[in-house]
Hints:
By secondary structure, this protein is an alpha/beta fold. The chain has 5 helices and 5 strands; from the N terminus they run E-E-E-H-E-H-E-H-H-H. The chain starts with a strand and ends with a helix. The protein has helices at about 40-60, 75-95, 105-110, 120-130, 140-165, and strands at about 1-5, 10-20, 25-35, 65, 100.
Amino acid sequence: MIVLGIDCGSEITGFGVVDGSSPKLRFVDAGAIRISAREPLPAKLHKIFVRLQEVIAKNHPECVAIEDIFYAVNAKSALKLGHVRGVAMLAASSAGLPVSEYAPLSIKSAVVGYGKAEKSQVQSMVTRLLDLKSVPEPPDVADALAIAICHIHTAATLKKQKATARS
């Protein structure tokens, strides 16, 4: 299973592609879509959409995983994040890909083993799990890879549960 993880952000949207089809996770691709704060919102959203379409076309993921909505103190930031999440979902659904959403606590628990882990801990574990030579930068890229890893672990657990239920 090849999974595209997306860490949505209004200035930096991270993406990470992980192959979980063998017992050992394999890094496929990752990067950051950087958006200028001076660009108007429609132009920002268009750039994110086009870039995610390119990532999907290049890597052929079977599904997309994104971080679920969390509660933000600043309503304006939450609205901007909502726009970016919508564009990420649109890019996935336009390619016919299913989208799964995961809470930040679930992502950190799946990767680090602790739901309140720091960003540096997530970066470190992603580096180890994917056997990377260096820590993914910016942290948004590590977060996107962590989201993909979370989906792979969750899918494997669900598959085992279904197999056990049939026995």
